[in-house]
Design goal:
Strands 1-4-5-6-7-10-11-12 form an eight-stranded parallel β-barrel, surrounded by eight helices. With about 240 residues, it is an alpha/beta fold. It has one domain (about 1-240): TIM Barrel (Alpha-Beta Barrel), CATH 3.20.20.70. Helix content is about 40%, strand content about 30%.
Length: about 240
């Protein structure tokens, strides 16, 4: 099981939101490089980075902060938020991001996802599926679509996407536990690997996911629980990163 600590960027700072609402932002460090270095020291093998300003339509705000994180870390980073053109994808992969996360564009221009996979390979392209009541939310979760999470996952599978990140928006930042039922349903009905996101608040939630021992559940993203000191990343990595 892969443990991915998260860094969410807003106005160049490391923050956390609740259910994706900008007005709920809490700043945890004005210099997100400090957080990246901390996660690396504590044993993370990947870091999950989200450009919140990009998701809200201003992708330029955090470019310098993201590049500093790339330059300072020795572990791979995945990046999402506002990546909606092939130029965006090419630029971030060329600048050192290990894989990009495509969300809004997977709904609005799924053909671009297919082209990106063909160009860069499935290890470089991840699709983020964020949903409320199983309906996909896009544009920083500000826009609710009529597309079901399962339907989108199936389409992405047809386009040779190998993994998705599934987030139950209602759980994100609430520390209320992940939506295991929906996660398993998407993984099994679309036959696609899933990284679990949203609601992880304590070790029991991580253990619950690990104990599933499901071949399609690949990893778990942990955000607010780490920032609120409800979990110790080094301890979680030691116990669960290798499935111990």
């Amino acid at each position: 099981m892969l443990i991915l600590p998260a860094i969410d960027l807003l106005n160049g700072e490391a923050v956390r939101l609740t259910q994706g609402a900008k007005e709920t932002a809490i700043t945890y460090d004005p210099n997100p490089v400090n957080i990246a270095q901390k996660w690396q020291r504590e044993g993370a093998q990947w870091i999950h980075v989200v450009n919140l300003d990009g998701a809200f339509g201003n992708s330029l705000v955090n470019i310098q902060a993201i590049q500093r994180i790339i330059d300072i870390t020795d572990i791979p980073l995945e990046l999402g938020g506002g990546i909606r053109t092939m130029e965006d994808i090419d630029r971030w992969l060329e600048n050192g991001i290990a894989r990009v996360i495509l969300g809004t564009v997977a709904v609005r221009d799924p053909q671009l996802v297919q082209e990106a996979v063909q160009k860069h390979g499935p290890e470089k392209i991840v699709v983020g599926i964020d949903a409320r009541d199983n309906r996909v939310a896009i544009s920083g979760w500000a826009e609710q679509t009529g597309v079901s999470a399962i339907e989108l996952a199936r389409i992405m599978k047809q386009y040779h996407v190998e993994r998705i990140i599934y987030t139950d928006v209602y759980r994100d930042g609430e520390l209320s536990g992940p939506n295991i039922t929906a996660t398993l349903e998407i993984a099994e009905k679309a036959n696609i690997s899933v990284i679990v996101s949203g609601g992880i608040s304590d070790e029991d939630h991580v253990k619950e996911i690990v104990d599933l021992n499901h071949p399609l559940i690949e990893g778990v993203i942990i955000g607010k629980a780490l920032y609120e000191n409800k979990m110790d990343l080094a301890d979680i990595v030691k116990k669960y990163q290798k499935g111990e």
